[in-house]
Amino acid sequence: MLGRISTKQGAHQKAAEHLEKAHKLEPLNLEVSHSFSIALIHLKRLERAEEIVSAALKVNPKYVPALNQKGSLAHLNQRHDEAKLTFQRVLAIDPKNAIALNNLAASFASTGDHVRAKELVERCTSNHPNSVEVMLNAAKTMRLAGDIQRAHYFLKKVLAIEPNSAEALEEIGSLYLSNKEFEQADAYFRDALRSNPKCVMAHVNLGLSHRLQEKPIDAKACFETARLLSPKTPDSYVGLAILADDEQDAEAAKKFFDIADDLAPGLPRTKHCRSVSQLRSGDLVEGWQNHAARWARSPFKEDRRPFAAPEWRGEPSATKSILVWNEQGVGEEILCASMYAELADKWSKVTIECDPRLTKLFRRSFPNVSFVGRSNPPAPELSEPSFDFQIAALDLGTYFRQDFAAFPKHSGFLCPEWPRVQGFRQKIRGDLSAAKSNCPIVGLSWHSDSKNFGKSKSLDLIGLAPILKNRGVKFVSLQYGDVRDEIENVSREISAAIQRIDDLDCYNDLDGLSALVAACDLIITNSSVTAHLAGALGVPTYLMVPRGPSLLWYWFVNRDDSPWYPSVRLFRQSKPGQWKDVIKAVNKQFEKWIG
User: Fold this and answer.
1) Distance (Å, rounded) from C-alpha 347 to C-alpha 198?
2) Distances from the Cα of 415 to the Cαs of 342, 362, 511, 534, 541, in angstroms?
């Protein structure tokens, strides 16, 4: 009784202690075993929970609560085929069992069968239209299946029945957080905490929201509160580890990740977050290995491409064919392209699915590789079972970039359209007087619209005034979007001229942008596609990178060079959000370069 009361109050550690005593006294009591396994699952003690469930099923192989727990544990441990079979056993006994229907739907969603998942959700909710638990589970499954609108619908139904449901409020907040709508997310998390101040995941997710908004003090307070409320829950330790990593404290990050992993070994979220920390700090071997855990997490699993060939895991490849696909942004695609020449040397046939904007540039740069523009559904030639293996482009690092010695010293691996390069140079030179016709051309990029950290990676153009006041150079905008007002404002404020190439769409015409970048003698840029293009073309580049959450792992830490791009020099923030010292350091080096 005490254990069940503690479970209802959310005191899962206390519940487990009471129920363990009860289980020792009555090991054949199936209700006690069931309650004990629930407490253990909440505490992420999954191996012990499986032991209890297996023992219960030996007593009664058709005990539905234990079968549901067995299926849930298989699902949590990514054994989705086992989970499906177990839930189907339950439905053979009880065709309307809500837990089995919901969890079977979640298993199908986790393996990409969203149609089947949605069918099961609708079947379950029609059987149990007023069940709060059913609606909550339906919302989670719809979120897994990528149907955010339907997930929101079910959560609203929950709130119509229970307006103060902390779990529903926290789930809605999570939906907004995944879309980087911080104001709405925070409001729902706070509503959840007003309803239940001990809602651990509301504290954790509010902390994650604060962290993404670069409020580390507030984030830490949320994670610490969650840790005090539930010391055996790993999520708060993962949050503290991420914050430590943002501060480039690898030792503290490792300590918190280790605690989280000890509490719940092998959780995909812990492994994936640890991988980012490891890669960022240069621990490449373990970092690449753990990075594969992203495929077990939403939304990463939705980014996985639907190809049937087996994943390449280092097998001999000289006579084989491989399909490489990208799940990252354009900048990361260019970064991964630094491994394509090495890949082509090892395989008989290499085909790469890429952003359509990159096909022309990549085909010119890697003539012995086939490139196909990414589409949904994939191009017909990629759906044919004609490939021996397939792999995500970023996972190539596991085999080609195991240490910094494996990064080649190149002078550029992309080939721009040289007549277009010359055309841009002539166009820029044509605006100069004869006396200035040989002055260097300096390309500028300063803004990012990226949904992930775009604001934190961006600078105001007028903030570059110390650099723009230098004379004896010709500045050219490489920035995508309509930036005429910014450029005109700089011209008025500090009499600095920045040329725009009006007939070039720097967002959609990446082949043209690569030619313009190659036409420059130096690039000064924020962390953006321009930085990747400049490094891949071998153009000397000053790259201004942020600190904190928006520091992308592949710029690493504690170094001013880029192993990916030898022509790139990094200038780093000392504190998140502060660009003044970065600009000062860039300008000092720029003045030396001008000579």
Assistant:
1) 55
2) 16, 8, 10, 11, 17
The SS3 assignment for 42 reads helix
- Give the C-alpha distances (Å, rounded to integers) separating 151 from 140, 148, 223, 257, 581: 7, 5, 26, 31, 45
Work out the end-to-end distance of the chain between its first and last CA atoms, rounded to an integer number of angstroms.
Answer: 81
User: What's the pLDDT score for residue 432?
Assistant: 59
> Who contacts 305 (Cβ-Cβ below 8 Å, separation ≥6)?
325, 327, 353, 378, 390, 392
Write the Ramachandran bin of 212: left for phi over 0, alpha for psi from -120 to 50, otherwise beta: alpha
Core vs surface per residue 101-111: b (16+ CB within 10 A) or e? bbbbbbbbbbb
Contact between residue 306 and residue 378 where contact means Cβ atoms under 8 Å apart: yes
Please check the confidence at residue 5 and state whether its pLDDT lies above 60.
no
pLDDT tens, residue by residue, 142-187: 887 778 888 899 899 999 999 999 999 999 999 999 888 999 999 9
Distance CA 565, CA 227 (A): 41
Find out whether 212 and 182 touch, Cβ atoms under 8 Å.
Answer: yes
Count CB-CB contacts under 10 A for residue 470. 15
Q: Residue 183, Cβ neighbours under 10 Å: how many? A: 9
Tell me the per-residue pLDDT of 36-86, one tens digit each, with 9 for 90 and over.
877 777 777 778 888 887 888 888 888 888 888 888 888 877 788 888 898
If you write DSSP's letter for every residue of 498-534 in order, what string do you get? EE--TT--TTT-HHHHHHHHHT-SEEEEESSHHHHHH
Cβ-based burial of 87 (10 A; exposed 0-12, middle 13-18, buried ≥19):
buried
Helix axes 200-212, 166-178, angle to 10 degrees: 20
For 584, list phi and psi in degrees, rounded to 5: -60, -45
Q: Which of 174, 169, 230, 224 is nearest to 198 (CA)?
A: 230
Query: Residue 371, SS3?
Result: strand
